[in-house]
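User: Could you check the structure of this?
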Amino acid sequence: MRPDSARFGMTASEMMVINPPWKLEQQMNNVLPWLQKVLVPSGTGYHKVSWIVPE
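Assistant: Sure, the predicted structure tokens are below.
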């Protein structure tokens, strides 16, 4: 996560899931690399799946 910059347009975003369904972490780890390539073809973006409070 990083703060927004002064550049034009949306430069960063984040999504937090509270009480995620079983297997969501696995599904997100499968789909996020593909989504990153589609949304950021330049290759400068990144994704991360993490837990704030582990199970």
